[in-house]
């Protein structure tokens, strides 16, 4: 009896958390998104707001762009993060390992806004990079690095690096070095060992990292707004515009819901394509 | 373990004691939803000394004010300060404001013509919802050495300033360009179809102009940085931004566009669920006194509707104002009339199209 009570008591914060902060707001969001404005103060039940997403090319183009760029950012983060994690987990020893890990963590001690402004100071036309290039004589005039998609990509990879490195280091650490040695003993070269032993073992970490980074990029608001240019549309920006500048909460809610559903679909498709399941990977990673 | 627990308990007890003490001390408070600079610390302190009312200031902008009040059906604040053109329409759509009892306001403190104008513009269903506070304009902030030829909004699209221009993707830009292209959007406010055609023309112009734009600015500070560094030489912005830059660099200043600067008046309105109406009226009557209004002018950079406050205003600011606004430019200011509900949907679609192009 008391054990059971303990179980429910331990469960209670989680239930309250999920219910109050996740489920109830989403039900509210869903209900709002199904209201179509007819005229001031008059609303009607309907799917008009969802239809607007599919009939207005701007909206689904923006979503497609956001999704593709987030996938690209995830891939880049993985490519940059994997060697770092491998080095931390397998090659670095003792103190240098702790230091390397802290170095990865360090940028997260300041807020995202400060990190993004840091990039703006570096990349702007009168910024550090542009001035250095001119000083070195590599460029004759100021260069603008900011306000384009590459700048967004840099910002996204930078902000999500930690979320890739942590799960990767954890899974790679659990790989016994003797497996790698055995691989070499059996005549495998570096590439074969990586492909046959290390990557399959690290798969849960890779998948976890990718899901987290993808979701963070897709839902990011600050980085695309501040670093992106006049053509850089981001879907969260659309949601913000609908809620705040257009006063169109109904449309904004529909977009919010679509973002949730479509991003879940993309993650599901990604898992299917790579032959993974959520239980196998995230559960273990 | 035991020690940590007891010290934790001690902290909690201390914290809750503190909270109770604070709650008891705060007899009365006024929750003010306003713009940066409209409630400077010294004015808040003076008000508290005189009335004992504690003022809680939340900074915001027009859209966020409406969104915040809409989220709570007009609760959470006792006094708000949206622009006068955003009151009647928002009231019609969301019912977030409460009619004002004008008899509780000392009308002698106001410039009479502005008070009457705002009362008329914020009227909905026979009730008055707002009284004026701070006014100003938006127009062009130009580096007069590097872009001397920029005199009107459409000049932002000229080749001379290609790649060195910035404006916002918001309704003032649409309105400004419409005037600059020889149309009168305010006259078309009542005629949705005419407004639609007009906005479509403006949209085409903005799409054509897009290669000239370095970035669409979203925050005032970001724009000031762009102008300060010389990355942008001409932009659509508020007068205060131009005057602020003028202090540092005499070449940059606010220019009233040939087709007319756009004039706005920020008001005082009561949110529908205001809990301290009396304090709100006290605050209004307090800040409209000429000396106090001059302090707000100094901190916000814009003039107020307070009668006689000019006498107390800083000389430097007056000089800048006169530099940007010769008499004919003042006469040519286009004051925003109330936005009818629904027009913003049309504008939103056009702005989307411009951004997507």
UniProtKB/TrEMBL annotation, chain A:
Q: Does the keyword rRNA-binding apply?
A: no
Q: Which family does it belong to?
A: Belongs to the binding-protein-dependent transport system permease family. CysTW subfamily.
This protein's GO CC annotations: plasma membrane
Quick check: keyword Signal in the entry?
A: no
- Subcellular localization, as worded in the UniProt entry: Cell membrane
**Upper lineage:** Bacteria, Pseudomonadati, Pseudomonadota, Alphaproteobacteria, Hyphomicrobiales
Annotated signal sequence range: none
* Pfam family name, one: BPD_transp_1
Q: Look up and give the membrane topology term.
A: Multi-pass membrane protein
Membrane spanning stretches? 7-27, 67-88, 100-122, 150-169, 202-222, 253-271
Major subcellular location class: membrane
Q: CDD domains of this UniProt entry?
A: TM_PBP2 (cd06261)
Q: What InterPro entries does this protein's entry cite? A: MetI-like, MetI-like_sf
Task: Print the keywords alphabetically.
Answer: Cell membrane, Membrane, Transmembrane, Transmembrane helix, Transport
* Protein name (record): Spermidine/putrescine transport system permease protein
GO terms under biological process: transmembrane transport
Where in the numbering of this chain does the ABC transmembrane type-1 domain appear?
63-270
* Species assigned in the record: Bauldia litoralis
Automatic annotation (TrEMBL), chain B:
List the InterPro entries.
Answer: SBP (IPR006059), Sperm_putr-bd (IPR001188)
- List keywords of the entry alphabetically: Periplasm, Signal, Transport
Q: Where is the signal peptide?
A: 1-27
Q: Where in the cell is it found?
A: Periplasm
| Record flagged with keyword Hydrolase | no
UniProt-listed GO biological process terms:
polyamine transport
Q: Which GO terms describe its cellular component?
A: periplasmic space
Principal localization? periplasm
Q: Which GO terms describe its molecular function?
A: polyamine binding
Q: What is this protein called?
A: Spermidine/putrescine transport system substrate-binding protein
């Amino acid at each position: 009896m008391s054990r059971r009570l303990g179980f429910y008591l331990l469960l209670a914060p989680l239930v309250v958390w999920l219910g109050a902060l996740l489920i109830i707001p989403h039900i509210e969001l869903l209900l709002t998104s199904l209201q179509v404005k007819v005229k001031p103060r008059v609303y009607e039940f309907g799917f008009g707001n969802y239809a607007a997403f599919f009939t207005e090319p701007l909206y689904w183009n923006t979503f497609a762009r956001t999704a593709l760029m987030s996938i690209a950012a995830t891939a880049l983060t993985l490519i940059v993060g994997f060697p770092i994690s491998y080095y931390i987990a397998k090659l670095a020893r003792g103190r240098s390992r702790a230091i390397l890990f802290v170095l990865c963590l360090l940028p997260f001690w300041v807020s995202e806004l400060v990190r993004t402004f840091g990039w703006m100071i570096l990349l702007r036309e009168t910024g550090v990079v542009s001035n250095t290039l001119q000083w070195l004589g590599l460029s004759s005039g100021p260069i603008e690095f900011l306000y384009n998609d590459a700048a967004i990509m840099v910002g996204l990879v930078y902000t999500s690096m930690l979320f890739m490195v942590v799960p990767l280091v954890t899974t790679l650490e659990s790989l016994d070095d003797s497996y790698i040695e055995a691989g070499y003993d059996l005549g495998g070269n570096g590439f074969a060992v990586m492909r046959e032993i290390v990557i399959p073992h690290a798969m849960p970490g890779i998948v976890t990292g990718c899901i987290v980074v993808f979701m963070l990029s897709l839902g990011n608001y600050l980085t695309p707004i501040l670093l992106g240019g006049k053509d850089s549309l981001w879907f969260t920006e659309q949601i913000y515009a609908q809620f705040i500048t257009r006063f169109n909460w109904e449309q904004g809610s529909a977009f919010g819901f679509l973002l949730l559903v479509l991003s879940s679909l993309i993650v599901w498709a990604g898992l299917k394509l790579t032959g993974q399941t959520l239980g196998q990977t995230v559960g273990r990673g | 373990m035991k020690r940590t627990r007891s010290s934790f308990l001690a902290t909690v007890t201390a914290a809750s004691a503190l909270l109770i003490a604070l709650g008891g001390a705060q007899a009365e408070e006024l929750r003010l939803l306003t713009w940066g600079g409209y409630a400077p610390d010294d004015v808040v302190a003076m008000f508290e000394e005189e009335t004992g009312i504690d003022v809680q200031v939340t900074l915001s902008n027009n859209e966020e004010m409406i969104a915040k009040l809409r989220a709570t059906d007009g609760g959470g604040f006792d006094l708000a300060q949206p622009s006068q053109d955003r009151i009647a329409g928002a009231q019609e759509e969301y019912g977030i404001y409460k009619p004002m009892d004008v008899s509780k306001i000392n009308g002698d403190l106001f410039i009479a013509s502005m008070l009457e104008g705002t009362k008329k513009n914020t009227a909905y269903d026979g009730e008055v919802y707002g009284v004026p506070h701070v006014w100003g304009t938006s127009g062009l902030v130009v580096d007069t050495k590097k872009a001397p030829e920029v005199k009107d909004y459409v000049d932002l699209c000229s080749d001379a300033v290609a790649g060195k221009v910035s404006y916002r993707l918001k309704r003032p830009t649409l309105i400004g360009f419409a005037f600059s292209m020889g149309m009168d959007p305010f006259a078309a406010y009542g005629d949705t179809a005419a407004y639609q055609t007009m906005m479509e023309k403006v949209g085409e112009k903005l799409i054509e102009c897009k290669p000239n734009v370095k970035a669409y600015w979203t925050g005032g500070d970001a724009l000031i940085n762009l102008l300060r560094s010389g990355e942008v030489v001409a932009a659509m912005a508020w007068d205060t931004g131009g005057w602020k830059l003028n202090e540092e660099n005499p070449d940059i200043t606010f220019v009233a566009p040939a087709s007319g600067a756009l004039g706005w008046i920020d008001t005082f309105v009561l949110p529908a669920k205001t809990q301290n109406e009396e304090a709100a009226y006290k605050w209004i009557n307090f800040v409209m006194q000429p000396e106090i209004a001059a302090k707000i002018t100094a901190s916000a950079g814009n003039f107020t509707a307070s009668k006689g406050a000019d006498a107390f205003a800083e000389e430097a600011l007056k000089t800048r104002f006169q530099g940007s606004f010769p008499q004919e430019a003042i006469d040519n200011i286009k004051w925003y009339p109330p936005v009818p509900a629904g027009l913003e949907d049309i504008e939103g679609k056009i702005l989307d199209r411009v951004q997507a192009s």
